[in-house]
Design goal:
The protein has 203 residues and is mainly α. The protein is 80% helix and 0% strand. The N and C termini lie far apart (53 Å).
C-alpha cells in the first residue's frame, strides 16, 4: 500500500471515529449532564447508571479513550500541517476549515482536563456526582473553561459532520453540501445549548 493510499484510509478512519463512536458519545454524555437541569437526584441517577454499566472500564477504553487519542493526535497533526486560506480567500468554508482546526485543539485540551477532573478522580476514590461537578464549576475559571470547552467540542463535531458527509461520498453535489451546512449549524446550536444549560444547572 502506498503512502497516498494509507493516508486516504487514515483520514477516513479519523473522520469515522469523529462521528462514531465519539460524536454519539458526546451527545449521550451531554444528555446525561442535562438531567441536572431537572434535579440533583436525576443527575446522580443518570450518572450512576452510566458508571455502573457492565465492563465499563473496557467500554471507556475502546469506545472513548483510544478513539479520542487517535482522532485527537492525528487531528492536531492535520491542524498544524494544513494550509489555511482564510487570509487569501476569506470564504465561509475556509473560515470553517480554520475554526475546525482551532476548535479541535481546544476540544482536545478540554477533554484531557475533563477526564482528569472526573474519570481519573474515580480511580482515586471519588464518585462522579452532582457535588463533584458543582465544586468544579464553582471556580469562575473552570466555569468559563468548561463553557468554552463544551462549545468548541460541539462546534468541532457539528462542523465535522459536513466533512464526514463528503469524505464518505454522501454529499457530492454543491446543493447537498449547502443543505448540510445549514443542518450542521442547527446541530451546533441545539447541542451546544443543551451542553451550556447543563453546565449552568450545577452553578
Amino acid at each position: 500500500m502506498s503512502n497516498q493510499d494509507s493516508g486516504f484510509y487514515i483520514r477516513r478512519l479519523h473522520s469515522l471515529l469523529g462521528v462514531i463512536p465519539l460524536g454519539v458519545f458526546l451527545i449521550q454524555h451531554l444528555l446525561v449532564n442535562f438531567t441536572a437541569t431537572y434535579s440533583e437526584e436525576a443527575f446522580n441517577f443518570a450518572a450512576g447508571i452510566m458508571g455502573n454499566l457492565p465492563f465499563v472500564i473496557l467500554l471507556e477504553i475502546f469506545i472513548i479513550y483510544l478513539p479520542i487519542l487517535f482522532h485527537g493526535i492525528y487531528g492536531i497533526y492535520i491542524a498544524f500541517t494544513a494550509k489555511n486560506n482564510v487570509g487569501r480567500y476569506g470564504t465561509y468554508r475556509n473560515w470553517m476549515f480554520l475554526l475546525q482546526r482551532i476548535s479541535g485543539v481546544v476540544a482536545f485540551i478540554f477533554i484531557a482536563v475533563h477526564v482528569y477532573q472526573t474519570r481519573i478522580q474515580v480511580f482515586l476514590g471519588e464518585e462522579v456526582n452532582f457535588q463533584m461537578v458543582e465544586q468544579i464549576v464553582a471556580n469562575p475559571f473552570w466555569l468559563v473553561f468548561w463553557i468554552v470547552g463544551v462549545v468548541a467540542t460541539v462546534f468541532h463535531f457539528a462542523n465535522g459532520l459536513w466533512t464526514f458527509m463528503i469524505t464518505w461520498g454522501i454529499t457530492q453535489s454543491e446543493k447537498s453540501q449547502q443543505v448540510m451546512s445549514y443542518i450542521t449549524v442547527l446541530v451546533f446550536l441545539a447541542i451546544s445549548t443543551i451542553g451550556v444549560m447543563a453546565i449552568f444547572a450545577f452553578v
